[in-house]
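Form 12-C: Joint structure prediction
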Amino acid sequence: MTENHSAPDADALAKRFAQLFHALGTSIERVIRGKRDKVELALICLFSEGHLLVEDVPGVGKTTLARSIAASVEARWNRIQFTPDLLPSDVTGVSIFNQGGNAFEFHPGPIFANIVVADEINRGSPKTQSALLEVMEERRVTVDGRGHPVPRPFMVIATQNPVDMDGTYPLPEAQLDRFLMRISMGYPDHASEVAVLAGAPTGATLDKMPPVSSRDDVARMIQFAARVHVAGPIYDYVVRLVAATRGHADLRLGASPRASLALLRAARVRAAAAGRAYVVPEDIKVLAAPVIAHRLIVAPEAELRGRGPGDVVADVLAGIPVPQAAGV
Amino acid sequence: MTTPAPAAVPDAVPATAPVAAPAAERSPGGLVRRHLSLVITAGLAAVAGLAFHRVFGWAAVVPVAAVAAVVPTVLAALLAGPRAGRPWPLWISLVLSVLAWAGAVSLTLFRAHLADGSLPRVIGIGLRDSWKGILTTLLPAPARPELLVLMHVLVWLAALAGAETALRTSLRVAPCLPALAAFGVALAMGVGGPGSNPPLVAAAAALIVALALVRSGAEGSAGGLPHRLTLGAAATAALGALVLFAGPYVPVSGDRYDPRDQVQAPPPQQRDSVSPLDRVGGWLLSPDEVLFTVRADRPQNWRLAVLDRFDGVTWTSDGRFAPTGSRVPPAGEDGERRDVGQRVTVMNLPGIWVPAADRPRSVEGLGVVVDPVNGTLAAARPLRSGQSYHVTSSVRQWSEKDFTGVVRQAGDAEARAALELPDGPGAQKAPPQIAEFRALAQRVARGADGPLQQAQWLEEWLGTYARYDVTVSPGHNYRQLDFFLGQSRRGTPEHFATAFAVLARTLGLPTRVVVGFRPGRTAGDGLREVRSGDVIVWPEVRFAGLGWVPFDPTPKRQGRSGADDDVAAGETLQKLEQAKRNAASRNRGGKATRPPEPPRAPAKAAEEASRPWWVYAAASPVVLVPSYLVAVLVIPVVRRRRRRRAATPALRIAGAWQQALEHLADVGLTTVRTLTAHEVARFGGRSVGDDARAHLGSLADLVDRARFAGEPSDQRSAEAAWLHSDEVGRLVTARAGRARRLRRRLHPRSLRRRVHAETRDSS
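Section 2 - Result
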């Protein structure tokens, strides 16, 4: 519960948060059918002020997800198509000398938006990727010694195509750590795909999506989520989960403390989205895989056995006792 | 040289005053008598020296006696030669004799000290302390110069005094007195030593008669000498024969006089910082350490230490150890014995106690002190690996007739000491365990026919009452023995033997404890390795006329092999056991030996142990089944009631959750350790149905809120939680069926409260 509100207030705010969250999810789901869980994860990223890496094959709605989120929150969004010849300044913006004003003027790049879709980020050069990732972390662009903050809320939704890897520059592990979550959209189920086909000519489109909430609402929701109560045993549970990855036999690299912070931040949002003003172990368990898995490096021998980071997270979750209610 | 004869001296002149030799003495017959007298006095001195053979042995005393008897006699004869009709003054003879004695002992006994300048000091110490050394050493004493010097000086003085008396006086038998005095000293010091003295006494008597006869002709004519010599020889032979053959039959009443009884022996020393009894437990726990090896005629149990004094806490040896050359005095008891020779090589045996079979007779190759009472050997210094020695032991051979009519030992000093049960160091009153031990021993030995059977029954009872267990903590004071007899009933030989000893003492049986070893394992070529695991402890009981009889109350050790090692010793022990049994049976008129009566007190455990097992087997279901039913049916009810009435709403909510989990166990929920509350709810939904899912979901929300919301729960939430929980229980019952629920209720698992990884503070 927040320090400034009594319990009923917190509950009421949590209920309001849940209503908005639910409304946003419903709105987006009209476009991204059958992917409610992915949509909610993306929204959790938004309200956690984190960034989302969507890794999937083309045509499953990665870009549409980003655009629909932007449209739902009445936010400005930009899309950057990463190519090998994309320069950092193409992302961040440049300073141009204005002869009329006899001064350099900063021309913001496409990064200056609330929602930025970095399409096929692994096709950009490492230098350009670094420029983007610096902004993701610091939420400001520094050009000619002057800092230019990006607008709030700020969220980068980067996409990667895991199939066509020719001519790509895979993101280093250190930079993957900057993403709050990595999700895979996956193909829609049969019913959802039928619904997409049936509604294609006249169904909901991005252009027709009404905004569900304003940017101010989003800012307040972010502010509320950051103050959701976390009990002591939850902290302990999170730390034990993350620490368990560091000593896991199948991993070459475990999760960093940044992963613990990210997991807790996301869990707060999920708790608020469930109408609660407190985090429960369920929040941690549900978010553990999306938040932690992409930060892990699986050992080659484990990889040869077909083990992936998701399997390791599942192992860890199955081995760490959940904080329980103690009775008599 | 002249010797005035009393008959030739005027009345006014003393008989011993040196006077001019009369003409008769300077005659050829007088010279012969004089020299014969010197020969006889020298012979008497030599016989006196030989009488020390019981102290040092023949080989040591013969050369010393010869030198000490001959040299001063020759010197006296030379100095007594005629000097203007008068002999040399006596003081010159004495001074020269002293110088001659110093030279003689320096060149013979103390030759080794000539070069290092310690000669005067060593001779002085020898003259001063040799008598104490002899009287405090078991005979035969070692033939060391510092001890032999006493004999040397006594014989020398006897020979010198006898010669001077014979030369300077006309007394007939007075010259023999110094030698007789030395003979008396030798006899007194040799009391208890090996060998006998009648031949020497006979020789001395003959020489005395000869001296009297030879010197009786001093006033007569020289023509009667051959006649007197003939008569004298006949009389000497007759007297000597009489002493030799009749002497041993002279009845002597009372105890013989032994000067050692008048000597205060050195006080007993703490000969070893650790009692061998205290080492038993450690040896048994690491049984493979080779302590010593033995090459013996026949394998025996090797006796290490005899502990006959108990102070309530520890068993120690009360023996006053005496140094010995090699001989160990024999035991006081009669009985058939067999000599067994052993060559022992020390390996890792700690302490000063020297192992040997039964009663040693002699020890060679190692400086030892001996307890003359029980024959225990101890080294002067702690044993070192590689030391080797040879022991000849006299092993008692038991037979059935030994145990016929055995009676209780009379209360001599040794027996009284072996009956003591002190209160313990610092105790203000007698420990209560002694009375309990006495009652126990009397109960075990009730109806026994004599002291032998009492001891046998104690032995048999202990062997069946308790078990051999090397892991039991060592210790044998009253409390530990009470624990051993009353509760644990497990022990090492230390416990069995000391318990037997204490119980036997309460019955008035003089008892001691012996620490020793089994014969050991054969290592080829007649060699046996005795290891730490071979250690044994046994008690011995003293019976009148029989001495100390060993008993073995320790039961056989489970799983111990090595039967071949114990064959010979086993034969001896088996013969002993069989002899005791036969004798006891015959004493009871041929009736079989009654088995020991199981005790009823003080040990309740013993009483329970005597009850047949089937009694417990039959009674246990009658008691256990109803108890179990009550437990599995009542405990869950009590637990639920306690949960529902917990102190705070949060605890009541948690209790409701625990109750719901127990309900779900009836449909297969095995663990919730890594499950969240909603995961459990989903499980319940799948297993029981959607209604249960709804109730469990609501209950999970309440539990999560109570646990993690950071705010106190209210009473309504607690009530709601119990409503959901009860509803879950009802749904589970409907789903699983009452029969299944009853089976689960009857399962022992229902007694166990779910334990969680952590606890929480109630808010």
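Section 3 - Comments
Residues 613-644 of chain B form the longest helix (32 residues). Residues 631 and 648 of chain B are 27 Å apart (CA to CA).
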